[in-house]
Prior knowledge:
The chain folds into 2 domains: 1-52, no CATH class; 58-322, Neuraminidase (6 Propeller). The chain has helices spanning 16-35, 283-286, and strands at 5-6, 9-10, 58-62, 70-76, 79-84, 89-93, 99-101, 111-118, 124-130, 133-139, 153-154, 157-162, 168-172, 176-179, 182-185, 196-202, 205-210, 215-219, 225-227, 229-232, 238-243, 249-253, 264-271, 274-281, 291-297, 300-305, 317-322. The longest helix is centred in the N-terminal third of the chain and has 20 residues, at 16-35. The protein is mainly beta. The radius of gyration is 24 Å and the shape is globular.
Amino acid sequence: MKTKAYYGLRLSDIHPLAHKILKSIAGLWFFTSLLSCGGGGGGGTPQAMSLLPRERIIESFSTRMYINEPKLMAFKNHVLYVANSGGNNVVKIDTSGQQSLFNFDAGLSFSNPIGLSFNTSGELYVSFVLAGSATIRRFTSSGHQVPTFRAYSTTGHYGIVLDANNSLYQVDTTNGLIKDGVLIYGAGNAGYATGFAGVAQRNSLVYVTNQSTNEIKVIDASNQVTTLQLSGKTLSRPHGLAFDTEGNLFVVNYGSQSDGSISSVSKLVITGQTAVVTEFASADSAGLCASVGAAIDDGFIYVSNGNCSLYPTRSNRIQRIELKVN
């Protein structure tokens, strides 16, 4: 026989007298809640109060069609743009999860796109390999290459971002951090593995993840570089990162396993030069694996999963996770 439960306690386990008392209290509470209109008494539409909060929305937003080894991502007008490394293209995903390809100039052939970002005019910047060399190119919304843009060459291209002044920050995993073509942090010698991966900006500050040291560097407008002091949980090979509207920073951790089987998402609450780190989503709870990219739009964080040998069903998809549960 099914028994009702109040906060995990079965009424069949309670003394009969206590059973009746609790049942009466619960019934009175529900009836009072039903009549409550939330304003101290004066009419209105009756509303029932929920005993338990609803679950956070976690779903596969877009699975494999064009998606193949997705890397970093960015939003423009609620459309998600994905650097699709395995497909050698950029994939656009609309609000319903439908995929299409970003149409570049005819004849443009490139490989291994990893980072992308938009300037204030809505033009798209992409880091990829062209004719055997890593570079960054600029495109109009219709896919035409901007010929006047200086195509920065890099050794180990990864994340890129443009700030409010359209200065371009690029992560070079073998050299360091580059701003508008000038090295501002790192050894500057080819072959020096810095481990830099993702990059994001907010309020004139640029944030960069270092997957080798599990740190986040902060660069101000005068190119001064500091390390964000973290407490709480530890980051684990951090890659993509994105800010919500409240200024909280979400970081995608590839994880310590080489196959990415324990990827996760961390939430950082930043105060000045310090941040408290908590786990926002785990591999199992959110279906994450070989996760790299992060982008936030309209109350959700989107995380890119790459090839995952241990959990093939999680491979090559974009997971969508609700940021808040009311």
